[in-house]
User: What shape does this take?
Amino acid sequence: MNTAVKLKILTATLAAKVPLPNFQALISSLASKAETFALASQFDSPKLKRELSLAKPDHSTEELLQIELNGDKVIYQGQEIGKTQILYKSPLPGELQARLATESAIDRFLEYLQKLHQIVVLDESDRHVRVFIPNKQVQIPDFAKLWEKFLEEVAFCAYGDSKHQLPGLVQTFIQMLNSVTLSGRGFSTLDIPVLTKDQSRVQAGWYFAVVRDVRERQNKRQIQIEGLEKELAESDLDDKARKLKTKQLQEKQVMQIKEAEKYTDYFRKSFGKSLEEQNAARQELGQIETQLAQPKLAKSEQKKLQKQQDKLMGKVIFTPESIQEKLRLLNESNGSPLDFVKLDEKKNPEKFREIRKISTNFTETATNQINSTRGDIFTQCVFEMYRLLENKPNDPLPKPLLTEDPILGEMRAPGDDSKEFCYSCGVKLDPKTARWQVLRFMFERPSQRRQSSSSEGRPYICSSCSALAFASPLKVTDESVVLMLEPADSSIDFEEKKLKIKDYLRMLTNKEMHLSAGRYLIFNSNEDRTSSGDLASHKLGQLQYAMVKTAKNFSVEVLADLNFSLITQGSEKISLSSKYLLFIKGLMDSYGQQIVRAGKEVNMHLGDAVRYIQQDLPYLADYTLTKVANLSNQYQLEQIREMYWQAVQNDLRTKGVDMSSDKQPAIKARLYIDIAALTGITYAFAQSLEITARQANKGEDYVEREVSKLIEKVDDAVAFCYYATLGDVNKRSVQARLYSNPENYFIYQQAKNLLDRLELSDRELEDEKKKYLTLYADDILNIYQYFKDNGYSQEKEWKDLTYQLKLSLYTRFPELVRKQKSTSEK
Assistant: This one.
């Protein structure tokens, strides 16, 4: 048993307040492990965190952390402190959005178990979870009942469990509607299972918010009409202005009347008709009940009447009293749905109190998801609001996604165009009662062309998939980028990194309108849109945009600690290399690069740089942004170049590749560090030349021209030395100094390492407490020959080395490559 698992078990046991021997000594031993504090934070146990903080760390009591396993029993110093249990996962759906909903539900359930019951995950795979259950439980808990409590108290609760920071529908469903546009044309009301009273209120609150926004739109237009009428009443308007305002007034008046009539006509006909049908069904039910109460009724007649009764019961939604009240309100409001709701709320404020409160969480983006400009859909919103308000939820809760026994697949007929199985998870359905069909809330594309179907349509799914998709904030659209975050390794600080994931996801979803659940994060790319409507994610490419967005939103420390993967429809996850993300972030920050420039155009130069980085061409990426940037933070650039090198080395270690190997990763790594060393050597001569040329007082153009000439000759040692003679006032010798400073400390160190390799270790001196390297023409010749003899003997290899060296040098003199704006551009 590794240390991480032991710490999980002991921390969970203490959080569950299970009495343990040598309690204080154990606390001191745990306090010596930094990751214990991260584990304690995940249990929401303030007392345990306080005890660990006050304890004096003791590194000499490792034996106190020893744990034994006896079957499923966990033994600590002869005492049984809990049990282990394997829970099996349901098969994951193949469709991306449905899979995200299932995985995020499992992650949220496991977090619920840990925070409320101190049940902690020891290991996990795609098929199972092994958990530790502290002995505070009298027996192994019923995970099916815990699942039901999780659904009722967290997932389908309005506000979730705020004490333990477990989000409910306000933080998942509502935040999703406020952030992501699911359909540009909007959709109708939702036909999904309703599981809890809170879910009813949230959905009813959404429809109430739709009514609110329609009323506000009409009120706003009426204010504009009255304002125009007031302006036209003034006599000092000229003919042109009067004509324009008269036209505007007429257009708004026509629109106001047309919209009001549209809503009233549909509401009066559709809603009124529905109420009449409900009333008739109620009366017919009364007659059937009277007939069924008659004695000596024949069985055939009784069966017939019961069948009619069941059919009518399915149609009845409102009570007789409610139907009569609504018919009176319909008459009193003259068929206006806005007046109808307003009058009802005035008469029954208590009925609307909860949904009015919830409705304040819905923004205009959320209400616009429903196509309320259509009279029939708006009427349906009002009808659904009342149905949800006045009926108790009766749909069954989704079946557990984690079970004590393996979930076995079932045999079924071939083909996928059937109501006999769920199109999402594959569970068996009764074709006679199959009700729920795929909606935009379940699948990215609800209309599917099945292999065994002659046309496209919406397949059937089970109630569990439908309900879980509703509660999941993770929705895949053309505007969303889905990322999965995982700790970079399973080292001793694994739990600390897992906690960091949760903290950063919580921070991002609070700071910006992004969505997260479990280990998944969805970036809303709609915020990176030009004024003309172009999405950066479309222009740059989904993968490139994901890398830029990730680099922008996460700190350097997090990029180094976590693994990021892009999740795409129908394919394996695409790993976003940590070294690439670090370098992209450094370039963006150092050169002040934005994804969208001033809201006008997508930064395609940044996209080019990202693609070069993906090809392991960091110097070309650096040069690409040097040319177009208006600023350069050289110290920050030097830091990121060093961090990139550290990430490259770590990447090689992870892959088990030696630096001297002839494999591509090692070859590219050597090229990067060799160019860094050569940059340090040649930069010293270019800088010396720049100083001497400037002293000639022939203007800045002369200086830039001479330095450019030198840089262009880096592919030839002799030519480079010849042009470098300008750096000596007498033009007889070639000598330069490379001073160590914050702007070049990385290439300085690499240049020094190179000189040491060539046994020229006496070149570092110190002048006024500042270190420098003394370099000569012979050094250039010897170093170039050294590289030709060690890895760059082929012409292609040599050209690649010197070409990228040239680019690297130009990034040290950005003024040489930045385009000057012409008069017309100014």
